[in-house]
Write a structure and sequence with these properties.
The complex is a heterodimer. By secondary structure, chain A is mainly β. In chain A, 0% of the residues lie in helices and 53% in strands. Chain A has no helices and 12 strands. In chain A, the strands form 3 sheets. In chain A, strands 2, 5, 6, 10, 11 and 12 form a 6-stranded mixed sheet that branches. Chain A has a 4-stranded antiparallel sheet with strand order 3-9-8-7, with no helix packed on it. In chain A, strand 7 and strand 8 form a beta hairpin. Chain B is an all-beta fold. In chain B, strands 2, 4, 5, 6, 9, 10 and 11 form a 7-stranded mixed sheet that branches. In chain B, strand 5 and strand 6 form a beta hairpin. The relative contact order of chain B is 0.34. Classes of the chains: A mainly beta, B mainly beta. Chains A and B meet through strand 6 and strand 10 of A and strand 5, strand 9 and strand 10 of B.
């Protein structure tokens, strides 16, 4: 079955330090992959997407992610965390032959001053 | 600012009420979605409309009734809901099989 696994339910970093949010997917092919961010009481905002072009994908707000087929991973990184990055982050993949997104369970990012 | 607009932002209803959630997009997308999200959980797909036709119904109870009047509008009609239906309801749109753009959601409380 197709699935997305976010390896950490909660990540805490200090402001100005790097962020790493981990995501693994299961698939027999290279799927479309996405990272979304959700601030409290808001909808989901697309940070970046991978659709079989460059394996290093740059997104908004300084985030980027690297697609590694050999590791079936799509980890999200940012060099320097800001307080405003504190939110819930969801990794998702496109379902085969459908418009259905398969979401990971989410990672809560806490940024300490 | 989101380009998918949802109204109302908050809704409180009793179990015997009938209400509707509305969603509008003007990005020319031909796929529209309803998701339900409980606190600290990922969104759960409810319905997908593709070219104004219902293409996916994730076994949602009949007390939820979707409607897609045209390519820009999506409604979710609510009737005889249960307290456990209280959640954030998210609308999204996309080009078919493209990335989804979400609205800010309608927070529903069922008393």
């Amino acid at each position: 079955a197709q699935s997305v696994t976010q390896l950490d339910s909660h990540v805490s970093v200090s402001e100005g330090t790097p962020v790493l949010l981990r995501c693994n997917y299961s698939s027999s092919y290279s799927p479309s992959l996405f990272w979304y961010v959700q601030h409290p009481n808001k909808g989901l905002q697309l940070l970046l997407k991978y659709t079989s072009a460059a394996t290093l994908v740059k997104g908004i707000n300084g985030f980027e992610a690297e697609f590694k087929k050999s590791e079936t991973s799509f980890h999200l990184t940012k060099p320097s965390a800001h307080m405003s990055d504190a939110a819930e982050y969801f990794c998702a993949r496109g379902g085969s032959n459908t418009g259905k997104l398969i979401f990971g369970q989410g990672t809560t990012l806490q940024v300490k001053p | 600012d989101t380009e998918v607009t949802q109204t109302p932002k908050h809704l409180v209803m009793g179990m015997t009420n009938k209400k509707s959630l509305k969603c509008e997009q003007h990005m020319g997308h031909r796929a529209m979605y309803w998701y339900k999200q409980k606190a600290k959980k990922p969104p759960e797909l409810m319905f997908v409309y593709s070219y104004e036709k219902l293409s996916i119904n994730e076994s949602v109870p009949s007390r939820f009734s979707p409607e897609c009047p045209n390519s820009s509008l999506l409604n979710l009609h609510l009737h005889a809901l249960q307290p456990e239906d209280s959640a954030l309801y998210l609308c999204a749109s996309s080009h078919p099989w493209g990335e989804l753009f979400f609205g800010e959601g309608s927070r529903l409380t069922v008393l």
